[in-house]
């Protein structure tokens, strides 16, 4: 994704506040695009609810 570092941190904070788990800014950057990021967040949510 062509997103600056501040935006990556803001996205990470929003995810943490909304869903209660941490996602790293490098994970967001590696996702590459917003649909992949949505998949990453969905996968992480599913994992966190089974813990």
Number of domains: 1
Q: Report, as a whole number of angstroms, the end-to-end distance.
A: 30 Å
Q: What is the radius of gyration?
A: 11 Å
Q: Percent of residues in beta strands? A: under 5%
State the order of secondary-structure elements, H for helix, E for strand.
Answer: HHH
Fold blueprint:
Elements: H1 5-19, H2 25-31, H3 34-49
Notable characteristics:
single chain, 51 residues, globular
Description:
The chain has 51 residues and is mostly helical. The chain has one domain (5-49). 75% of the residues lie in helices and 0% in strands. Helix 1 crosses helix 2 (25-31). The longest helix is centred in the last third of the chain and has 16 residues, at 34-49. The termini are far apart. The mean pLDDT is 88.
Short overview:
The chain is mainly alpha-helical. Helices cover 75% and strands 0% of the residues. The chain has three helices and no strands.
